[in-house]
Amino acid sequence: MAVSRTVIISCAGMGNRLGLGTTKALLEIDGRPLIIRHLEMLDQESDVRVVVGYQAEAVIETVRKYRNDILFVFNHQYRETGTGASVALAAKYAGRFILSLDGDLLVHPKDMEKILACDHEFVSGGEPVTDDPWLLQTYKEGENEFVRSFSKTRGVYEWNGITQMKSCKMQEGTGHVFQLVEPYLPVPFLKLRTREIDTVNDYERALAWVKNDFKESGTLENR
Fold first, then answer.
1. Which is nearest to 148 in space by CA: 181, 115, 173?
2. pTM of the model
3. What is the DSSP letter of 110?
């Protein structure tokens, strides 16, 4: 049975730290914008919403060339608010779950399959690879692992901005997505392979990852 889910992709930010003068959702990775790479893996999802702000017209135009049934939500306060505000704006009349994705993120295609097969709440992360990560503190109960907190200084995994939560929990907020999730921790942990793009170094690592067919540098197999 299909999961009752609304996918929200946050693309409102300006990408100031990257310094390339474009919203990160439109960054081209090996010939395709990041937002299109997301949508290609979400073809089977019927309720997809894209939150726009900075360079909204360009994002809308790019998305509509690929798919014309996307709902666009405007975050007019994108300069003062974070991704949590964008998700809350788009959360109205959502399905049972909200799957929140950031527009500045690359997701391993096999791991996106794992995300879309998930029928429960989760907070995800992976090996720290960006220049300035938020970290996840986790603990295990038997074979299951749970996220207990977010931290700037301690944690084994890097928070990658991907979470699936019941939509009733994501209706209000002005900060970041993790701040919407924090009151409901602990939440099951889902380990994913991703590349977030915040800095030029992040961008170069993401490009190399895609060109290497999503294999880690120096490995011979797609883990």
1. 181
2. 0.92
3. H
* pLDDT tens-place string over residues 17-65: 655 677 889 999 989 999 999 999 999 999 999 999 999 999 999 999 9
Contact 101, 7 (CB under 8 A): yes
Amino acid (one-letter) located at 42: L
CATH number where 121 lies? 3.90.550.10
For the chain, first and last CA: distance in Å? 29
Place of tokens 């720290």: 128
Given a contact cutoff of 8 angstroms between Cβ atoms, the answer to whether 37 and 63 are in contact is no
Determine, yes or no, domain membership for 57: yes
**Exposure b/e, 36-56, CB count within 10 A at least 16 = b:** bbbbebbeebebbbbbbbbbb
Residue-number span of the structural domain to which 37 is assigned:
5-125+159-184+192-211
For 22, counting Cβ atoms within 10 Å of its Cβ (0-12 exposed, 13-18 middle, 19+ buried), the class is middle
DSSP state of 117: H
